[in-house]
Amino acid sequence: MTQVKKPMAVAIMGPTASGKTASALRIAHATPCEIISVDSALVYRGMDIGTAKPLPSELAAVPHHLIDILDPLEAYSVAQFRNDTIRLVADITARGKLPLLVGGTMMYFKGLVDGLDDLPTADANVRAAIEEEAARIGWPGMHEKLRAVDPITAARLAPNDAQRINRALEIFELSGQPMSALLARRAKPALPFELVSFGLETEDRAVLHKRIALRFDQMLGDRDDEGLVAEVARLRARGDLSPSLPSIRCVGYRQAWDYLDGNINRAELRELGIIATRQLAKRQITWLRAMPDRIVIDCLGADPAGAMLAHLATLSK
Predict the structure, then answer these.
(1) Burial code of 120-141, b = ≥16 C-beta within 10 A, e = fewer?
(2) Segment 209-217 long-range contacts (CB within 8 Å, at least 24 positions apart)
(3) I want to staple 154 with a disulfide (CB 3.0 to 4.6 A). Which of 145, 147, 175, 266 is the partner?
(4) Vertex 280 angle, CA 198 and 211, to 5°
(5) Rounded CA gap, 136 and 147, in Å?
(6) In this structure, are residues 229 and 260 in contact, taking their beta carbons and an 8 Å threshold?
(7) How many whole angstroms separate alpha carbon 45 and alpha carbon 101?
(8) Rounded to an integer, what distance in angstroms lies between the CA atom of residue 113 and that of residue 110?
(9) Selection from 225, 230, 222, 223 nearest residue 252 by Cα
(10) In this structure, are residues 115 and 86 in contact, taking their beta carbons and an 8 Å threshold?
(11) Which of 203, 265, 254 is closest to 228 using CA atoms?
């Protein structure tokens, strides 16, 4: 029986400030492509500066998807991303173009490739007990508790990621097993397309940290009436948003919100924003290194996009 060859899609993954957008645009100029954003922050309208959203000219040059699709009051799940992406890849390939999946939300990539979990459903009593303990010792303390029972999951979560720490501890309480172990045992569903995955990475963390600091400074600008602070001030002025929402918990936004609340000064905003972005990059790298099928590309090399194009050319032969 002749097997029908699956269409191909390309993933460009990497930590923040690794040059994913620039590489994707370069590839899109070399071959007909459409870009699917794999970024949990770019889905939100009105959040442009702090998310390093592609410029209007860049969005106009190449078709982009899953950008500006939600109001910051809404939430977007891994399940929604997976369903949207499978549909979009089919549409893009039907148009004779190459789908480029570009971003740094590694949980989306993992959910796409590994499928959705079949974990214990939420239990209000267990969740309430976890939240009660968190009120006493703080979420960093709960993160340490998670590290003791599920170090793999803990390594991928920020110490203040209340929602995901709560869920991981809840799963352990309900099942008696680490979430990472349950996820490792499930069968992978077959994607309706072949995914070639590139990881933009570097061993030189110092250069990546400099890039992160430079980009955060560019986001802040020189005055509060411009840049990230002004953007967050506009979001606050709506009156219906709060720091508990996934959108406002995005790196940079929660620090700017604290600054506007008067809890920190501008120097602390810059310092905490850069630290949080570095921590995000570290978690992204941890996720990447757990993806054995990726093709590693040096993001500090002379031509990362060229290296990816050269590899893709060998696949078409």
Answers:
(1) beeeeebeeebeeebeeeebee
(2) 209/278, 211/17, 211/18, 212/16, 212/17, 212/274, 212/277, 212/278, 212/281, 213/274, 215/16, 215/17, 215/52, 215/277, 216/252, 216/270, 216/273, 216/274, 216/277, 217/270
(3) 147
(4) 75
(5) 18
(6) yes
(7) 20
(8) 5
(9) 230
(10) no
(11) 254
Cα 40 to Cα 128: distance, rounded to the nearest angstrom: 26
CB 234 within 8 A of CB 34: no
For residue 12, what are its two tokens?
């460009």
What does residue 132 show for φ and ψ, rounded to 5 degrees? Answer: -65, -45
Residues 6+ apart with CB under 8 A from 1: none
- Which tokens sit at 84? 């949207």
Residue 201 · residue 288 · CB < 8 Å: yes
